[in-house]
Amino acid sequence: MSDASTPDDAEPSHDHEHHHHRLEGPGYATPQAAIEEGGREKLAYVMSLYVGTDVDAPDFVAVVDLDPDSETYCEIVDRIELPNRGDELHHFGWNACSSSCHVEGLERRHLIVPGQRSSRIHVIDAKDRRNPELAKVIEPEEVYEYDLSAPHTVHCIPDGEILISMLGDADGELPGGFLELNDDFEIEGRWEPPGEIEMNYDYWYQPRQNVMVSSEWGAPKTYYPGFDLEDVEAGNYGRKIHFWDWEDGTVEQTIDLGEEGQIPLEVRFLHTPESTHGFVGAALSSNIFHFWRDEDATGGDERYRAKKVIDFEPREHEDWDMPVPGLTTDILISLDDRYLFGSNWLHGEVWMYDISDPSNPRRADSLSVGGTFGEVQEVQGRELSAGPQMIQLSLDGERLYWTTSLFSSWDEQFYPEEGERGSVMLKADVDPRKGTLELDEEFLVDWGECPAGPARAHEIRWPDGDCTSDVWQ
Amino acid sequence: MTSHDVTLEWPDGRTLTLAVDEDETILGAAECDGAVLPYGCRTGACGTCSGRLLEVEGAERDADGTIDACAVDDAIAYRRLSRALKDRHRAAGYVLLCIASPRADCRIAVGSSVHTELVDNPWK
Ligand code: FES
After folding, report:
1. Does B34 touch chain A (CB under 8 A)?
2. Three-state DSSP state, A413
3. d(C-alpha A13, C-alpha A413), whole Å
4. B49 lines ligand 1 (CB under 6 A)
5. Worst-scoring range by mean pLDDT, A210-214, A267-271, B71-75?
6. I need a labelling partner for A161 at 20 to 30 A (CA). Which of A62, A368, B72, B102 fits?
7. What is the pLDDT of residues B74-89, one digit of tens each?
8. Chain A contacts of B33, Cβ < 8 Å?
9. Is B47 in the pocket of ligand 1 (CB under 6 A)?
10. What is the DSSP letter of A262?
11. What CA–CA distances, in Å, run from A439 to A203, A204, A214, A400?
């Protein structure tokens, strides 16, 4: 099943000084090459789920037609059903991305699709982009052998290996860690020495800087049943980010973001491989932190700094007892590193900030849609049941898409109608020159009409790489 | 093998009575019978499979109408730690059906809505 066919004697060479090297592996030589050569997205893969409902069907991967010239535009044109119920498909990733662009023979072909609740890991062969097929399943028991559970972020790491952040131990308690798969999609083992971190969530790496950054949600047993303020008071949710030595797999520095950094979820470095700047969204505190390497700092272990640069204030709502936090659940950076986009799931807002100067983000525009306060509460007559959540941006930065489900048990708590109506996928047109967002009312994909019943929709990926999966060496 | 009658009750009024062996989980027995119950982790960590004890044969009810906590403990044996439940949930009769085996005849409310009772929206 290996996609790699690098001859033994062909030592992969990658000259970091030369950006215009001949491309032999998957992906694009540079972020700018992805913008110029990638073309418009015609299909999306979207995590779709029934877990936690009474619908007798497994979760599935939806293939969504995004080609405006197609007769099936805005429709789910294929569903890859998984063998079991109860997975909670959440985040997923490719077996190879632009970080392996030097590995001859490697293809961006297999999707690694973990079940957040089940700890089962699926491998889907997407050689036929419109009709992908399930190729392999790694059962939870195989994962538990490494004392890990609750798989989250999937990145391919150079040379065909795959790294998955794992949020808990085999019992759903702490600590979490990282599971590594080889290019035959077999478990290679734990990537890091156990115990480097307690909590885990998302991660991003910048190989040219030999750095990885990881964030924190909580123990699976804490967040699985739903959000409980008791857990916040007990300190059961995360507020730290960790900077790793990428080659050694060890933590070099941990930054406690404090009260204003509660539940740091999605974490992104800028796409430029030289950059040491990035952002993390603290979901519960609804703040964005900028982090960067301070070149003037003395000593290797305290070189990264983090500072709150965007603060979304809670809002009063007449029907709610307490001010409602924005709940900043997803962020992403455009491939040209010019804009930071994000979603405030509870308020019902997608926003864009100009990050040309990353330490001083400048608000460019936002859209008030869905959620608790959104000005737009229906599209094409379809009532929206929740706020914008997972976002994905076209390679050229001109179309922003989003879905509305966060996590099945948290959805039930904050937007109980979502389970009855299902999720939607919506789109805004972005003008990167003017820095504006405009809702495209012609665009609507409705998970409320799935054959087995209304489904939730979560993370979105493009077949040939996107703003949240590709890393450059 | 001793078995106990476990009656599952869905919100729409459907019921199903199963004879569940003491070494079987209630979720497993229900699946053998073709009944669809929600689940996720199957290890007692996620709470997706939560049911709520409505009655335990021979057990008294407290003044507030809940089943006596000791009777709840006596009615259900867990094969692993019920990590997804907090003390307040256990005391209120919530049961993780993926790891629970009966030790008495009982009636249990099931279906995905039971799981949603575990936590409220704290801001509302
Ligand atoms: S299925 Fe997760 S606790 Fe039972």
Report:
1. no
2. helix
3. 51
4. yes
5. B71-75
6. A62
7. 899 999 999 999 999 9
8. none
9. yes
10. -
11. 30, 30, 32, 9
- Which residues does chain B have within 8 Å of residue A221's beta carbon, measured at their own beta carbons? 45-46, 83-84
Whether A361 contacts A310, CB under 8 Å:
yes
Asked if the C-beta of A86 comes within 8 angstroms of chain B's C-beta atoms, the answer is yes
Nearest CA in chain B to A52: B38
In one-letter notation, the amino acid at residue A125 is D
Q: Does the beta carbon of B84 lie inside 6 Å of ligand 1? A: yes
- Res A99: pLDDT: 80
Contact A225 B46 (CB under 8 A): yes
Alpha-carbon gap: A219 to the closest alpha carbon of chain B (Å)? 10
Q: Give the residue from B28, B55, B63 showing the smallest Cα distance to B42.
A: B28
Which residue's structure tokens are 């800087």?
A209
The string of pLDDT tens digits covering residues B35-53 is 999 999 999 999 999 999 9
Q: How far is the CA of A361 from the centre of ligand 1 (A)?
A: 42
Given the structure tokens 């050689």, which residue do they identify? A127
The CA-atom distances, in angstroms, between A326 and each of A261, A312, A329, B119 are 13, 6, 9, 20
User: Mean pLDDT across the stretch A271-290?
Assistant: 97
Q: Find, in chain B, the residue whose alpha carbon is nearest to that of A414.
A: B121
| Cα distance between residue A240 and residue A254, in whole Å | 7
pLDDT of residue A13: 39
End-to-end CA separation in angstroms for chain A: 25
Cβ-Cβ contacts under 8 Å between A and B: the total is 114
Q: Check residue A6 and give its pLDDT.
A: 38
Q: How remote is the C-alpha of A24 from its chain's centroid?
A: 27
SS3 A396: coil
Q: Which residue has the tokens 């079940």?
A: A115
Task: Give me the DSSP letters along A112-161.
Answer: EEEBTTT--EEEEE-SSTTS-EEEEEE-HHHHHTTT-EEEEEEEEEGGGE
